[in-house]
Write a structure and sequence with these properties.
The chain has five helices and three strands, in the order αααββααβ.
């Protein structure tokens, strides 16, 4: 329909310009230009009136506005979901950090700091890295003999730091189900 409309206007303009060129009298050319201009205005307004009378223009504008609004809402929802996900992940990481800290204190392991990094995947949150910074080992030397992992006679004092780190690694891995390779412990 639009293509036919454009073709009609183009043919009309070609015929009008041909007639103006063929007529030698300037007076007739002026009248022909005025008359053809009026007809051109009527042709254009006829199409505009058609869009307004049938509501096509309004529907088209409404549809575009709705598409834009939906796209904006989707973008906003995605941004909000990402922000909620980040905050939820951060809150959960903090809760796990506090839980690990208190768990290790109950196990008589002195802890300076615990940091947990998690990632979001299809199944939910998973542990990326658990960083544990240990503080003094006053209780550990006394406690190591009672531990079922190491017997008192097995502990070599030159390797106490390694034994301590392995002990904490095993505690965390067993209690929280975290892979040992994801647990990093420092003195």
């Amino acid at each position: 329909m639009k293509l036919d409309y454009i073709k009609t206007i183009a043919v009309f303009l070609l015929i009008t310009n041909l007639l103006i060129t063929l007529i030698n009298n300037e007076n007739y050319q002026k009248y022909l230009k005025v008359f053809s201009g009026l007809i051109l205005v009527l042709m254009v307004t006829k199409q505009v009136r058609f869009y307004f009378s049938t509501g096509l223009l309004e529907k088209s504008i409404e549809r575009k506005i709705q598409e834009y609004e939906i796209a904006e809402m989707n973008h906003s929802f995605n941004s909000i979901n990402e922000e909620i996900g980040k905050k939820s992940k951060g809150i959960y990481e903090k809760e796990i950090e506090d839980d690990i800290f208190h768990f290790l204190e109950q196990e008589k392991v002195e802890v300076k700091n615990v940091e947990v990094e998690m990632s979001v995947n299809e199944t939910g949150l998973s542990f990326e890295k658990v960083l544990i910074e240990l503080d003094g080992w006053k209780e550990f030397n006394r406690f190591i003999g009672e531990n079922s992992i190491y017997e008192a006679g097995e502990v070599n004092t030159s390797h106490v730091s390694e034994v301590r780190m392995e002990y904490v690694n095993q505690l965390i891995a067993k209690e929280y189900g975290i892979e040992k390779k994801r647990i990093h412990i420092s003195d």
